[in-house]
Amino acid sequence: MNESKRYNKRNTYMVLIAAGVFLLVNKAFGVYIVVALSSMILGLHNIVTQSGKKGYILLAIGAIIILGNNFPLVIAIILLSFGFFYLRSKKMHPDDSYIQKHKLMESMKWDKSPWVLKNMSVWNIIGEVNMDLSLAIPEQKESVVILQGIIGDIDIVVPEDMGVSVQSSLMFGQVDVAREKEAGLLNKVAWQSPNYETSEQKVKLIVSYIVGDVDIKVM
């Protein structure tokens, strides 16, 4: 009985503390920020513990709430992201012989039939990429593919006989490259297959999003 009372008291104190913190944060930042931060924290927790899509949805909801109440910040983030994309594209493709695509929203599904692999740079505010490199017909020995934007869901399959180099960076989300997984905040992964230097065909993947789920499988 005493244990039960102590447990109830502890719960009461925790509720009071939580209520106090909520009121302080609400006073300082406003209810929208509280809701947004709560959504993003729950989303990160879900990503780390369950690796489900729900976490990314919660992250996106939180980000939209924050950005929706700070329109100039939204524009600034988009302009910065696009500016960095342009500079990176020029650096990685100095000879201008590459495809450059930028759209608000795009779904690229190159995983059902053969397709031509060219040097390319793709930027989206919201992007979905399904790419099977075992179906790709490369134009050159080494291809450079840049995928960048605000929110991205990236799934890429790389055949074992193709050399691959990956540079991936996310502010929020999960990166899974050849079974090496990073999840949470500020994820940066650099990985290169053992056969990269000796492969007849190789691809360099550069992936960068603010919120993303990146899955690159070597099969």
UniProtKB/TrEMBL annotation:
Residues 107-216 form the Cell wall-active antibiotics response LiaF-like C-terminal domain. InterPro entries: LiaF-like_C, LiaF_C. The chain crosses the membrane at residues 12-35, 55-87. It comes from the Bacteria. Keywords: Membrane, Transmembrane, Transmembrane helix. This is Cell wall-active antibiotics response LiaF-like C-terminal domain-containing protein. It comes from Paenibacillus contaminans.
